Amino acid sequence: LVDRTTERALREELARALAKMAETALVDEVTGLANRRHFEAEIDREHRRSQRAWAPYAIARIDVDGMGKLNEELGREAGDKLLRRVGEELKVARREYDLVARWENDELVVLLPGIDVPAVKGVLARSLGAMRDAARHLAGREVTFCTGVALWIPPSIETAGDIFTRAGTALTAAQLMGAGSFEIDAS
User: Of the candidates 187, 162, 49, which has an alpha carbon nearest to the alpha carbon of residue 114?
Assistant: First the structure.
């Protein structure tokens, strides 16, 4: 005899395990945001879509200023909680179709399809304000973010990787300007 109840329970357990594995492959375990692998796949997909549609897009790289010092003073667990909360605020303040991900350590990235420079400034100003408020509440002090943004504007032969690299260069320029700086490369 075959025990159908046990078989059904095992299939359901397997389905849950497979769903959890699929989620783990795409989600950062600390922040609950999309992870690097997911983001890389999505920027490639968005780049191809933007080329076909002749539509601009942007990549923003956001770094928490002084995160190492915050981790030392508050502890790694509190630092992770701060990063998680900041990521949540960034996700809530974004447009519905923007993708927020954790890139590495204390750096978050945002993919902003169909956007121009004024819209980038508006979306990120709103997001960064919400992030600063949440971080201040959690850390008990002012927390700032450096942001580097690069736009892909057609016609262009650049790749998604080129745009990401330009966003990194803009982030480095912002960091050199000082805590809380914002730099946009729209070339």
Answer: 49
Distance between CA atoms of residues 127 and 94, nearest Å: 7
pTM of the predicted model as reported, rounded to 2 decimal places: 0.86
* Residue range 107-132: mean pLDDT, rounded: 95
The one-character DSSP state at 181 is -
CB-CB neighbours of 126 under 10 Å: 14
- Sign of the Cα pseudo-torsion (140, 142, 146, 147, in order): positive
Let me know the angle formed at the C-alpha of 138 by 133 and 141, rounded to the nearest 5 degrees.
70
Mean confidence (pLDDT) of the chain: 92
Q: CB within 8 A of 21, min separation 6: which ones? A: none
Length, in residues, of the chain: 187
Q: What is the rounded (10 degree) CA torsion for 63, 64, 66, 71? A: -120
Closest CA to 65 of 131, 160, 153: 131
Lowest mean pLDDT segment, chosen from 10-19, 126-135, 138-147: 10-19
pLDDT at 123: 92
In 3D, which of 132, 119, 111, 16 has the Cα closest to residue 57? 111
pLDDT category, 2, cuts 50, 70, 90? low
